[in-house]
Amino acid sequence: MTSAEQLLNEIDDYQDTVFAILGFVNFYRFDDHARKLREEVIVFQGRRLTPSAAKATTADGGSRECVTPDFGVLHRPGHGVLGDAKKSFPKDRSLWRKDFEQLMAYDDDLTGWPCTEERVDAHDVVLLTHQTRVVAVCDYYKDKTSSGDIHFSRPFSVVSFNRSDERQANFHFEKRLGNLSDGDLDERLHLGVSVPMHVFADEYFTVKLYDSEPPLPYMAALIWEHVVADRASEDPEKYAALHKNQKLEVVFTLEEMVQQLHQSFSFHALGPQDTERQPLVPRKAWCRRACDVLVAADMAKWIEPPPKDKVLVYFRKLDDVLARMLAICAEGAAAETQLPLFLETPEDPSGSQAGA
Description:
The protein has helices at 3-29, 96-105, 131-146, 183-191, 197-203, 216-232, 236-240, 254-265, 284-296, 321-334, 339-343, and strands spanning 30-31, 36-37, 42-44, 71-76, 79-86, 122-130, 156-164, 170-178, 193-196, 248-253, 300-302, 310-315. It is an alpha+beta fold.
């Protein structure tokens, strides 16, 4: 497999994870009888929830200040769902323990739910994983629960997902282990439910990012198409006159970039957005790494010294933006001397707001 093919697979996995989260939370948002979305249902993603004193310490003795589920739903007063979405698991099963430790951290009396009391009376814990891995994951869970290594006091379930690209494309969900507190949904998922892809196009077409860093070419393409191009088009006369090989210089800060992408492509529109518990997506560090890709390809340059918060981009019209970013990143991945360009800025340890 070439570097470009590997990157395409990573982008596909990232997009499928976004679809899986959206499709699952849509079961709670959509009223099948009224055929409309339930306004009272609150969806959140990457929200910082504070653990109880009993679970404020990790398995290795460290301090756990917060947990950040991939998705959360407050579907009726005092009742919710928290969970993670993982399309794949490592081949080394000894590494799976950490994923289940994270899920077990959600099995707690957490504070910070998006409601007046900031706590709920009851909630489920759910793992979404791809159908090709779900049998192995369920077997692992059963083995570890029988030995006492894994335990949930709250309802826990494993739900598989799979994208079908047949004539009528859809995303299929099926409960493979455990039970959901919502009896109707539990029964539906026991039999399996397919969500037509037009649901994502109609209701969630703007959501492209969740609280996990996307592959570099995907992030760089989003920035080029929806930040750089937007800024370039603010001068309609110059933009309209721009020929294919001509360039238009645009300048912006990473903070501006984060704000624009967060407003346009995160889960921002689906739930509460208080800045204390709901960090901005994308992180500033993700955008900085993506801009490093552009700089490495002579498509941009930093105009301030580290921490590199302002960038000048030489915008030009590209026929296929993602293909161009894939080529740049694949070349960088193949050349060891270029790898530091893509990895030099560490992820924000706090994960706070726009990052550092």
